[in-house]
Amino acid sequence: MEGLTESATLVGRSGVVKDILRCLRDGGMSGALIVGNPGTGKTAVSRAVIRELEPNTAVIRLAATPALSAVPFGALSPYLGELPAQDLDSFSAVVKAVTDSIKAQPSKPLFVIDDAQRLDRGTTQLVAQAVATGAANVLATCRPGLLIPEEFLALWDDGILAKFDLGPLTRAEVHQLCEQVLRADVSPWATAILADASAGNPYMLLSLIEHARDTGALGLRHGIWFLLSRPVLSDIPVADLIGHELRSMSPEERTTAAIVALAGPLSLGQLLGFGGPKAVDALEMAGIITVSRGADRTVRAASPLIGEIIRRWVPAGRSAGLRASFVSLPPGASVPPDALLNRVRWALDCGADVPAEQLLTAACAANVALDAQAALRTAEAISDDAMIPEARLQMAYARYLLGDGAESEKLLQLAEPVPNDTSRYLAALLSARLRGRSTAPLTGAASGGVAGPAGTPDAGPLRDSRGTFHADAAVGPSWLDLATVTVAAGLAGSQPYGVHGDREGGLSKLVGAAGEQPEIKLTAESLLGELLCAKGRMAEGLGLAREAWQEAQSAGMALPLVYEDLLVRYSLTMNWAGEWEALAAALDEYEAHYPSRLLLSGGILHLMRGLARVRQGRMPEGSAELVLGVEELAIADPWELLPFAHAVAAYAASTVGHTQEAEEHAAAFRLSRYRGPGSVPLLAEAYSTAAGERPAEPGRPARGSRVLLRRPDGRGCRASRPTSGVLPCAGETQGPPTLWPSAAPRWRAVKRECCTTTRSPCCTPTTPSSSGSATGRCVAASCSWPSKPRSRPSGASRNPPTNGNCSPSSARSRTG
C-alpha cells in the first residue's frame, strides 16, 4: 500500500512539484510550505521534490512527532550529539552547534520537516532563523489553519517562503488516479461514486479502491472496471488514520465529530449545543467536518467515508448516551431526508423505539435515494398493524431495486389493500415494472450464465461461457404508460385508455385530476409532451416537456424511481427534437447532483448521450458511449432500457464497421422480450433492423432498404393514424422532398429511422405552425448520417433548400 500511495497520490500534484522546484532553484525563495489535510498527498509531494534535488542538495531531516514536541530542540537531537549536556538548554549554544553543522555542508542544506505543526518551539525558531538569514532552505509539510507555526507564516508573509495548499482532487483527477491504480479503463460512474464517497482525498480514495476491488464491488468487464455494487464504507485501511486523528483530539472535539456523523447533516446552531466554536473550527481545519457558507450554515461529515468510520468508531454505550442528549434538545427546522435516515439508523442501532410514521418516511426516503438496504431495514422495523401494508410496499420496492423480483412480487401482494391514493399509485407503478421485469438481477453480477463472475476478465452481458445468447435477459419498459395506473391511483376523472383510445385526452384529464400531486401530474405532463412531439406538434410538446422537467427540479419527487422516469422521457423528447444543449445540461446536472445514485441510473446517462451522438452523426463517439451504456444497464436496469440500448448500439456499431459487435447487440435485442407502450420499442426495432440490413464496410455506414415496422396490433404504422405506439411521425406525404446531393445520405438515414408504410415512404419534415402543430413533421429528421461530402452547385447551402415545407432555419433548429 505504501508503494501504491507513493506514486498514485502524485496524480493532480505534478504541477505543485514543478512549482516547488522552481521556487527552490530559480525563484529566489528559501523554501516551500506544503499545507493540506491528512491524506491529501503532502508527504508524497515532499518526497518527489527531494528525489529531484538529490544528490546535489544536502538534506537535513527533522523528525516532528508528538513525543518530541514536548522536548526542547527534540527534533534536532540527532545533530547535537557533540554538544555538552549542560548546553542543551542554552539556545545560543544550540544555535552555534547547528550553525557549525550547516557551514560544514558542501552546499546550502535543505531542512525537510514532515508535520511541522508538531515541531517544538525552539527547533521552529532555530530553523526559521537559519532560513531568514539565508544559511539554509526549508521544505515543510503542515496541517492548515492555526496549526501552521507562526514563524513559518511570518516567513511566508515576508516573501521568503512559498506556500502551496493541497485541496481535494477534481473528478477528472480521481478518474486518472483510478485508471492508474487499476491499470485499465474505468467507468466514469465508478469514479464518480468513489469520488463522492472519499470527497477527493487521495489516500482515502486509494483505500476505498483497494477495499472495493478485494470485496468484489469493483469488477472487470470487457477490459473496463465497473462498480457492480454499492461499496461498503467500513473496515477499510484508512479507518486507522481517522481513528488516530480522533484519539489525538480533545473530548469536546470527539463528541462534536460523533454528533455530526451520527445525526448529521445538522445546523451549526444545533451542533454548538455539544461543542463550542473552537471545537467546530478544529474539526473543520482537520478535514473531519465541513460547514456550508450559506445562510443555513449546515454541518456534515467531510465525506461519507469519514462519517461511516466515525459512526463505527463510537462505542455502543457512548452512542446511546449521546443520542439521549441529542433528542432532549429542542427540534430544529425541517429535517432533510439524508439527516432523517441517519437519525433513524442511529436510533435503531441504539435499540430505541422509533415512531412508525418516522420509520415509513425514512424507508420512502431511502427508496427515493435508491438505497435499498436502508429502506429494507427501516421498513422491516415497523410493527404498527395499520402501517404494515405501506411498510410492505416499501420493502417490495427495495427488493425490486436489489433485483429480487419474485420476493418483490410477494411483498406487493401482501401489501394489499393499500390505504391511500399515493400508496395505490406507487403499488400500480411497481406492478407495471414487475410485469416487464427481467429475470436477471438489477444490481451486482449478472446471473444465469449471462456474465462471468464479478472481477473476471471479459465478463459481460452478451454471451455466456458457451457463447450463446439468452432470450430472457431483458424485457420492455412497461412503466412508460399510465394506462393501467390512472384508475389504480384513484384519481377523479381518470379513465384507462389503450392503443386505440384517446391517449391525448386521457393524459390531459389526468394532468387536471392530479392537482397538487407532482409525482402524478409531472409524469402525465411528460407523457403528454412525448405524445404531442410524436404527433408532430413539436412546439407544444417541447413546452410541456420542459415545464414538467423544470417543475421536477423543485418539486422534490417523493416516490422511488419517478424522477428517473421523468429523466428518461425528457431525454428522449430532447433527442427527437434535436435539443442537444438542453439534453446535455439535464444529464450533466443529474450526474453532478446525484453521484450516489449512478450505480443504478448511470446506464440511462450513457444511453441518452450515445443516442444523441448517433442522431447527430457522431457515430464513433456514440458507439463508444453506448458500449458503456450497455454494460451499465447489464449491471442495473430498473427502467428496462437494456434492449433499446442493444438496438441503438447495434446500429452505431454497424455504421463504424464493427460488424461482429453489431451482430451481437442485434442478436441480444432480438432474443429479448421487448414490449411496452410508447415509441421506444418500435424505435429499438428500427435501429436493430437498420443495423442488420447489410454488413457495413469499415468506416462507411450500412445501407439497405427502408425499415417497415408494425404497430402492436400487427398492422402497418400509417402516418395518418399517429399514436404514441408508433415511431414519432405524423401526416400524409407524397415522398421525400428534392434535396441537394450532399443531403441524400441524411435523408436515407431519416427513412431508416422513420415509421413508414409501403404506400408512404417517409414523412416530409415541415416547419411548425404558429399554433404549435406541424403537417407531416418527422422527429426522426433530426438524425444525421455520416457521409463523404459530394459536389454540389456553386454557392449551394449545406442545408436542404426550402421547398414548400422545410426552411433552412427550421432544419438547423431541429438538427442542432
Mean pLDDT equals 76
Oligomeric nature of the chains: single chain
Number of strands: 11
How far apart are the first and last residues' alpha carbons, in Å?
49 Å
Largest sheet: 5 strands, parallel
Separate helix tally: 34
The structure class reads mainly alpha
Shape: globular
Strand content: 5-15%
Point out poorly predicted stretches: 438-474, 496-500, 694-816
Descriptive notes:
The radius of gyration is 32 Å and the shape is globular. With 816 residues, the protein is mostly helical. The strands form three sheets. The chain has a five-stranded parallel sheet, with helices on both faces. It has a three-stranded mixed sheet with strand order 6-8-7. It contains 34 helices and eleven strands. Helix 2 (14-25) packs across helix 3 (42-53). The model is unreliable at 438-474, 496-500 and 694-816 (pLDDT under 50).
Task: Fill in the keyword field for this structure.
five-stranded parallel β-sheet; disordered C terminus; globular; 5% strand; 50% helix; single chain; 816 residues; mainly alpha; three-stranded mixed β-sheet
Which helices and strands, and how do they pair?
Blueprint: H1 2-8, H2 14-25, E1 31-35, H3 42-53, E2 59-62, H4 91-103, E3 110-113, H5 121-132, E4 137-142, H6 150-157, E5 162-165, H7 171-182, E6 185-186, H8 188-198, H9 202-215, E7 218-221, E8 224-227, H10 238-247, H11 251-263, E9 266-267, H12 268-271, H13 277-285, E10 289-291, E11 298-301, H14 304-313, H15 316-327, H16 337-349, H17 356-368, H18 372-380, H19 388-401, H20 405-414, H21 421-435, H22 485-488, H23 503-514, H24 518-534, H25 538-555, H26 562-577, H27 580-593, H28 598-615, H29 619-635, H30 642-655, H31 659-670, H32 680-692, H33 744-753, H34 808-815
Parallel strand pairs: 1-4, 1-5, 2-3, 3-4, 6-8
Antiparallel strand pairs: 7-8, 9-11, 10-11
Helix pairs in contact: 2-3, 7-8, 7-9, 8-9, 11-13, 11-14, 11-15, 16-17, 17-18, 17-19, 18-19, 19-20, 19-21, 20-21, 23-24, 24-25, 24-26, 25-26, 26-27, 26-28, 27-28, 28-29, 28-30, 29-30, 30-31, 30-32, 31-32
